[in-house]
Amino acid sequence: MVIYFASVFLLSYLVGSFNFAYLVARIKNIDIKNEGSGNPGTSNIHRVLGRKMAIFVLFGDILKGISMPYWVLPSAVYYINSLYNFNDYGYMDNLVETWEIGIHIAGFAVVFGHCYPIYYKFRGGKGVASFIGYLLFLFYYYQLSFLWILSLLTLYYAVFKSTKTAALASLSVVFTSIFVLYSSLSSSSDPGLAIFISIVFLIFWRHKENFDRLMRGEENKF
Questions:
Q1: How far apart are CA 11 and CA 78, in angstroms?
Q2: Nearest to residue 111, comparing CAs of 51, 183, 170, 36?
């Protein structure tokens, strides 16, 4: 089991390490680390290269967050079937448990890879877009109401409209999503919740410079 989860983490990390902001900036012959805020993410691409390029980066990073948890299902089926026969008692229980834990490990690894990409000397983005992709997959997996998505979008819009600060709006959604996931789980001791919360802490840690700028009143606004 440890080998399987380690494989899920490694592959998801390698995919998460691919950064669309670096790709777009290189095509435009720009070193994004030396432009704008220096962050290789959607917001800085929007400042430096405009809306179209920012949309491309945003969807690319979201796709990473969706695709890797989705990949976990067939890999879990293959792994569990190598340990249990399809007719063995407990096969489905083991499959579901492995799949669910694997989903959250993949989500964490994708976001971690985006934040600390091995391809770019571990200098990555803040992880929000990849987290959103992972969150969208969880909405599908747990069959959550569309009203939750609408509520998070409304929250983002309200915070952004009032503060003109993308970081605050994004972090508001990231933090609130903890309660969204909690509402969908049968137990507060679910290991998936602990992994999910660790991702939220990672994203908040990656925004520490934003908090410093906010305290000084120097945070970039749109």
A1: 16
A2: 170
CA–CA separation, 149 vs 155, rounded Å?
10
Provide the sign of the torsion angle of the four alpha carbons 171, 173, 176, 177, taken in this order: negative
Q: How far apart are CA 205 and CA 28, in angstroms?
A: 30
Comparing C-alpha atoms, which of 48, 66, 60 is closest to residue 18? 60
How many whole angstroms separate alpha carbon 181 and alpha carbon 98? 18
Overall average pLDDT of the 189-204 stretch: 89
Is 121 strand, coil or helix? coil
Query: Is 1 strand, coil or helix?
Result: coil
Query: Whose CA is closest to 76, among 62, 92, 65?
Result: 92
Tokens of 93: 């229980």
| Rounded Cα distance, 210 and 83, in Å | 47
- Give me 13's structure tokens: 């990390």
The whole-model pTM stands at 0.86
Other Cβ atoms less than 10 A from the Cβ of 164: the count is 13
For residue range 156-175, list pLDDT tens digits in order: 999 999 988 888 999 999 99
Length of the chain: 222
Q: How many CB atoms lie within 10 A of CB 215?
A: 9
